[in-house]
Write a structure and sequence with these properties.
Elements lengths: L10 E8 L5 H14 L7 E8 L5 E8 L2 H9 L1 H13 L2 E7 L7
Antiparallel strand pairs: 1-3, 1-4, 2-3
Helix pairs in contact: 1-3
Length: 106
């Protein structure tokens, strides 16, 4: 389960996907499949969440990894490269960005 904490030592990755209402659920199915079958089983994976906006034109994916290298190794794997080609076909664009937590408010 992802944990948001200011002094966390993990790598946080937020990926946004631009989709159409007609492809939103197809992409969600692909992302669920990727997490269930592959991503969640990779070394360093800590947790993730999928979010969809009301208009079903954006999907946001929040994931945490023990290290930047763990995330990059998963992306470079043959399986994830093949999955990302399918994901790319279902959306207008997607951008994974690595972040550091700077502040948390309760």
């Amino acid at each position: 389960m992802p944990t948001i904490a200011k002094n966390a030592t993990c790598q946080t990755v937020i990926t946004t996907f631009e989709v159409t209402p007609g492809t939103c659920h197809d992409l969600l199915d692909e992302l669920r499949s990727a997490y269930d079958a592959f991503v969640s089983k990779q070394p360093g994976f800590l947790g993730a969440g999928l979010h969809v906006n009301d208009a079903q034109t954006r999907i946001a994916n929040y994931s945490q990894w023990e290290s930047r290298e763990d995330f990059q190794a998963m992306l470079r794997s043959d399986e994830m490269r093949a999955r990302n080609r399918k994901i790319n076909d279902l959306c207008k664009s997607f951008t994974p960005v690595m972040y550091e937590v700077m502040e948390v408010y309760d």
